[in-house]
DNA sequence: TCTGGGGTCCTTAACCGT
DNA sequence: TCTGACGGTTAAGGACCC
């Protein structure tokens, strides 16, 4: 806690949805819902227009569609969001070297450390200028909270939303917090909120009255003590610029539960490879391998194994994952599988012993002539999967199509996984490799040889509808093509600003 | 009609060694 | 030598965040 409100929290308004609106002029002012489009997709972000229909983050997409049938439902384009985020974070770093990003659309800034502001008036001026700069640079709006601590700055930006600024004057924090719901405090989610509610505590004021001992008894030592301090407006956590990753993981939810043990093993191997790809790309190795299984009834279990030393060897991670899977009962079906690595070391140590063992064990798989080091960097894992497709047939065919569109992003590939699953069901479509079934996800970028850049508005029954417009242009025209139209191809997102 | 993906942190229990 | 307290590590699960 400090005396002056010089901690700034920036929160971009409905970030993903706003980026989509900015890059697709016909969606300006319209209900936009960004998230997974598969049968088990959930909403990542909804525009304020969509929120008026009751749509919100984490809601099943199917429900969102029912609530807001005319909303545009789009897949996330993380590569573009990352570009915009980098721009915004760059603006923040002009204010201070102490910038702590929390996600693509949120960050803390210590203004005092950057000598950007030392009092309330200065902080407010910096905040307003920042908001103007962000809009000038990206066309988007962000909300700013200013206070003497991280927690209060975050509460302030939340109150300021959308497109506002709120500064909490030192000395006023307790009375400001008192009437608020306990749920406004970071760390109080559905479970803790319900727990407190049953004890008759619904506001922050009541939380403070309860006292530390009472709270510790109710929700545990660390949580209770932290909660009590927050209720009093106390928080002295510093803004930390660089924090090391603690784990790397990948997971896939399948469109339909999978039962086949062979398929489950295969998926786990693919996930292990993808995980190692990400691990290596980040320059890490790790010591503990974690397998995650979500069963048909949504019950989730994890199994982990700690190695003698850190590894980034795909064969080692594959083996460990397979071992862990053997101890899991999957009868009844599996809806999600995940592989993760924790206990990260920021160096890469060759685990020679394990590599020798892996090489010895490598003769086992049927077509196992592949080199164990064939883990491609993130986003290209289709290639390693293709090696294994010798057994599984056309499973990776759709992966190829999606891969072309997903150049920039891990998530470009996510949709592909779902598509791959669907194709895999048809099994032995080896002969169909030439006739690639292209999957046009709503919201993805395309380019037509004649009409130029556009985005997929929808597709089905052999047709794909494309709207031809770009950031900065007036709303564009819609045209429909056959899904296999040779003049239509996936493309990269266009920058939000810069052309204008 | 269900419930994503990528993380973080905390709690509890078991186990091991001192 | 037996027992207990304690601390560290591992494993599993859960809550929470965006």
Mean pLDDT: 82
In DSSP terms (H or I, runs of 4 or more residues), the helix count works out at 17
Structural category is: alpha+beta
Compute the separation of the termini in Å.
43 Å
Q: Order of strands across the widest beta sheet?
A: 5-6-1-7-8
Which residues sit in consecutive blocks of at least 5 with pLDDT less than 50?
A: 362-435
Largest sheet geometry: 5 strands, mixed
Percentage of residues in DSSP E strands: 15-25%
Number of strands: 17
Helix fraction by DSSP (H/I, runs of at least 4): 25-40%
Gyration radius over CA: 25 Å
**Shape from CA axes?**
globular
How does this model look, in words?
The chain is α+β, with helices and mostly antiparallel strands. It is built from 17 helices and 17 strands. The strands form four sheets. Strands 5-6-1-7-8 form a five-stranded mixed β-sheet. Helix 10 crosses helix 11 and helix 16 runs antiparallel to helix 17. The radius of gyration is 25 Å and the shape is globular.
């Amino acid at each position: 806690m400090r005396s002056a409100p010089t901690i700034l929290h920036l929160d971009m308004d409905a970030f993903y949805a706003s980026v989509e609106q900015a890059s697709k002029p016909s969606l300006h002012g319209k209900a936009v819902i960004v998230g997974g489009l598969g049968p088990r997709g959930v909403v990542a972000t909804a525009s304020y227009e969509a929120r008026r229909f009751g749509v919100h983050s984490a809601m099943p997409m199917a429900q969102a569609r029912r609530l807001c049938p005319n909303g545009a439902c789009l897949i996330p384009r993380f590569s573009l969001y990352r570009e915009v985020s980098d721009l915004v974070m760059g603006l923040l770093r002009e204010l201070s070297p102490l910038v702590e990003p929390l996600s693509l659309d949120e960050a803390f800034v210590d203004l005092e450390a950057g000598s950007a502001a030392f009092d309330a008036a200065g902080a407010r001026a910096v905040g307003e200028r920042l908001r103007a700069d962000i809009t000038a640079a990206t066309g988007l709006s962000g909300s700013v909270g200013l206070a003497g601590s991280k927690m209060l700055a975050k509460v302030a930006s939340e109150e300021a939303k959308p497109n506002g600024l709120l500064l909490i004057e030192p000395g006023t924090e307790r009375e400001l917090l008192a009437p608020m719901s306990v749920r406004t405090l970071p760390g109080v989610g559905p479970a803790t909120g319900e727990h407190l509610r049953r004890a008759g505590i619904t506001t922050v004021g009541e939380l403070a009255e309860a006292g530390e001992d009472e709270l510790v008894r109710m929700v545990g030592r660390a949580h209770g003590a932290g909660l009590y301090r927050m209720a009093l407006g106390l928080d002295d956590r510093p803004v930390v610029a660089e924090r090391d990753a603690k784990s790397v993981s990948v997971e896939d939810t399948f469109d339909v539960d999978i039962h086949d043990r062979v398929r489950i093993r295969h998926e786990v191997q693919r996930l292990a490879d993808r995980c190692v790809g990400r691990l290596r790309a980040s320059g890490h190795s790790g010591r503990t391998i974690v397998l995650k299984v979500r069963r048909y009834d949504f019950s989730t279990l994890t199994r982990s194994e700690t190695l003698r030393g850190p590894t980034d060897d795909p064969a080692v991670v594959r083996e460990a994952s397979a071992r862990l899977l053997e101890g899991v009962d999957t009868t009844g079906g599996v809806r999600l599988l995940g592989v993760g690595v924790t206990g990260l070391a920021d160096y890469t140590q060759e685990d020679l012993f394990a590599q020798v063992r892996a090489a010895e064990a490598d003769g086992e798989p049927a077509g196992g002539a592949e080199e164990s080091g064939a883990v491609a960097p993130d986003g290209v894992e289709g290639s390693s999967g293709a090696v294994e497709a010798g057994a599984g047939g056309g499973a990776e065919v759709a992966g190829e199509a999606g891969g072309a569109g997903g150049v920039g992003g891990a998530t470009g590939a996510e949709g592909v996984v779902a598509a791959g699953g669907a194709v895999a069901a048809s099994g032995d479509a080896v002969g169909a490799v030439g006739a690639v079934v292209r999957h046009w996800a709503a919201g993805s970028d395309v380019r037509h040889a004649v009409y130029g850049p556009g985005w997929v508005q929808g597709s089905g029954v052999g047709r794909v509808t494309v709207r031809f417009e770009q950031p900065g242009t007036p709303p564009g025209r819609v045209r429909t093509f056959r899904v296999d139209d040779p003049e239509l191809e996936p493309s990269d997102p266009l920058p939000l600003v810069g052309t204008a």
